[in-house]
Write a structure and sequence with these properties.
With 270 residues, the protein is mainly beta. It has one domain: Tricorn protease N-terminal domain (Neuraminidase, 6 Propeller), CATH 2.120.10.60. The chain is built from no helices and 23 strands. The strands form six sheets. It has a four-stranded antiparallel β-sheet with strand order 1-2-3-4, with no helix packed on it. The chain has a four-stranded antiparallel β-sheet with strand order 5-6-7-8, with no helix packed on it. The N terminus is likely disordered.
Amino acid sequence: MRRPFFILPLLLGLAAVAQTPRGYYRFPALHGDTIVFTAEGDLWKVGTAGGVAQRLTSHPGNEQYACLSPDGSTIAFAAEYEGPNEVYTMPVGGGLPFRHTFDGSEPKVIGWTPDQRVLFRTVKQSTLPNSQLMRLDPRTSTAELLPLAQAAEGVFGPENRTLFFTRLPKQGSSTKRYQGGWIENLWRYTVGEAEAAPLATDFQGTSRNPMWWQGRVYFISDRDGIMNVWSMTPEGTDLKQHTRHAGFDVQSAALQGGRIVYSRAGDLHL
């Protein structure tokens, strides 16, 4: 039986009391009833019911792009502990971070693969430079480059063979309804195939942040003029809109267990 997919109209109440200043919450990750996010340059943890968040880190350098492992035990993230961003992991309950990369080119953690490897973006392997994706084994810190000349964000299907990805990273102007040369759109690549294939090519706007759940690709897109959550089949058909926000865009999002957590206007929604 297929499990239902939910996006609940719940705004997480992360402030302890009403008079406490509200934070600006970004880059959420989700596993079970646990959300990890970035605020004030540090990582925090809170339950999906909201409440008082627990601060996990307190280093002067920024920690961001947290992603929770498939078993929920480990956080992968990027941090500026010794200069530029590098890839680290730490237990979900807190503890000493472990450094895995010495990349020097500001790698960004994208997610985890079904076989418990960290997926991250780097330009170190490219001479142009182009963003590319690598899979890192957190047990050995060895990393494997995916055979794509351009790849900025991505998610593997459950069989760990098909990658849904964007070729280009988010362009920096934050222009509404951008349709220029740095447009982000979704592609599909299956290991062993000669070429990747573009998806839903009839739309000229932005589609990014791919996520996978029970045979569908979820993503955020400005198809209705504002970045909202959408989904489609692996072939790029049967598009469905799941949120209908106006004004402020949906930003970074994460999906696990049939629920999506995302940031919008400095708050988290589940």
